[in-house]
Fold these 3 entries.
Entry 1:
Amino acid sequence: MPEGVTSRTTGADEYSGGAVGITVFAGVLMILVGIFHVIQGIVALANDTFFVLGQDYVFKFDVTAWGWVHLIAGVLVALAGFALFRAAVWARTVAVILACVSILASFAWMPYYPLWSFVILAFDIFVIWAVTVHGRDIVER
């Protein structure tokens, strides 16, 4: 348990271990999702022929532009994951907003790498659930 973090319900040094664990896991998942976006961005920038658009989809974008989008979004998502460890309200708000942005980017990226997009979508949905349901259980003293 990070020093200075207490349970909101008791105000004492006791805490809900499950809720804290889920929130910390959400932070770790956000960091991983950010790293995954950064890796996708680097691959798209380094080798724009690696990702192949199989069918004719509505979302057709230049792979190099997507590389920059994933790179920037990945850094922001990872930083939001680190901010979740501070247990601040602003960090939870930013985490939910950036997880939503990550969901939109993964959905639009689906024609290029469908399975990976679904994995990132699932991680982001878990992060939103964990932060909105269990985020209040820990607060910074």
Entry 2:
Amino acid sequence: MTALTPMARRRGPVARAWAYVASFDGFTRAAIYVLAALIIAALLGSWFGLGGSPTDIVGRRLQPPSLAFPVGTDNLGRSVLPRLLAGVTTTLLLSAAAVVLAALIATISGIMAGYYGGRIGGTIMRIGDILCAFPAIVLAILVAAVVGPGSIAALASIVLVTVPLMTRMVGQAARQVAQREFITSAIISGVGTRTLMIRHILPNVAGTIAIQGTYALSVAILVEGGLSFLGYGVQVPHASLGLLVQEGAVYMVKAPWLILAPGAILVIAILAINLIGDSLRDRFDPREARSLT
């Protein structure tokens, strides 16, 4: 592992971030750059209208890729590029929001399970086991049937799918920390339970949270894509990568670019996130086992 130099620590936050990225291996740096490029392109499309409007009809139906339309047009004559950028924005924002919520829930429940153990820890873990018994897509469809198709269903499904796995890993890490001598010393010194969890256990499981959160993001993108493909996730006129794959599947033979473009973005994004997650795992704890892949 390459540590930041003293000179890098004295620089500004951008320079420190750049130095931290540069400390990774070539594959990880490439994954970070690709993921950053996707995010920047999506933001440019959303904020500055890069590629045009995703809803305007601008040409003939099912035109192949050209200089005027780099990713062709869809079945209504809309340019695919702005819809693709809008789909990337929706998928990444929805998945990231769900993972942040899942990480918050998993952190609280995992630290409680690891610290208390016994009946409390066992109950938390058994609830997670019950959720894990459902196949991810079946659980997502059940959620959509209860709350109705849409972004809320996708967000709730991602949370329910990722929370049990993250909770188990955070709980195991918290249990190991809770058995260390400095925790025992803090308890003897009269440190309160809340302070103990926040100031002593949480910093020592932050690496596990970051690793599992990264893997959870790739799972979230898959769940959102699958749910939207089946018609239970993001609904038209909005766009997501899964919804674009669903729309393109109808014209897979006549207009293959409609399904290849969002499909390729899905593969690239998930691969980049998994590569970053592997590097974070090796950096924070080389013995850390992957649970979400």
Entry 3:
Amino acid sequence: MPNAYTRNHVVELTEVERAELTAMARSRSLPAALALRARIVLACEGPEAASTEVAKTLGVDRSTVNKWRGRYVRDRINGLYDELRPGRPRTVDDERVAELITKTLHSKPADGATHWSTRGLAGETGISKTTVARYLKAFQIKPHRVESFKLSTDPLFIEKLRDVVGLYLSPPENALVLCVDEKSQCQALERTQPMLPMGLGYAEGVTHDYVRHGTTTLFAALNVMNGQVLAQCRPRHRHQEFLDFLRAIDRAVPPELDVHCIADNYASHKHPKVRAWLSQRPRWHMHFVPTYSSWLNQVERFFAIITDKAIRRGSFKSVKELTTKIDTFISHYNENCKPFTWTATADSILQKLARLCGRINGTEH
């Protein structure tokens, strides 16, 4: 039989409350304690639900069941959340916090340092370094970090941006869109000592010094539609090599397809001989990304992949060994390649640029 406590705290749920409690009980994102309290209330529904049986079923103490069923009857769902507990009063008032934030954002240390440190701010403001660190974290201020950026000075930035992004989002029919560029100065570096193998608890080890055995230039053309890469390694980086690479692309692309080639503004790409060769081939269409905007060229992402996975941590005794490694990697890459998915529209990029300009407006720039 239900005891007096149970009769005084009968849990009656509406359909909305039952659905909300069920969702809380099944949630994997809410705190485990909150989900348990929801299960307790659901198990206590009805006048016949005894706290002892509920506690036995859920594996908790009977007093815990009584506590949360009583809180729910009194405060409903809001009663399941933890109440604010009294603590030590604040030792730093709002004015001192504002002074700390202002000093961090709008001043430099007197010793000539480029940015504030936690200990420097603590010594300047009289606030403990742990408190300074806590407020910097709360306001998401990171004076120890720096991010690089470069605004394009191209007068035709918007026109070129819309042109290139348009090719990514809506490629023309009966045409192939290729992102073309060169990764110059790929160095054949031989480590002076053998690499230490990776093991349990420690990473692979490489020496910081090396012997140079020469360089090569990787010419690459990325097919935007399927992600395949056509590449060549050449000893030099001139318009002659670039023109030879364009000829190789021309032979590889079926004659019935137009070629839309996205490239940067490197001088060899606009050499008179290159222009003359292109003028004799009407199916070729060159699209140049804006100045300082190589991030628009998708082949740069492939260069990052091959650098990370095949070049940076390698040790090569000759340029030939390096080029063989590059050719082998590209061959395997093309077997399971996938295209990069471009989602940003030209308008979204311009809006992001506007936000950046708004942030730096009024600064020393």
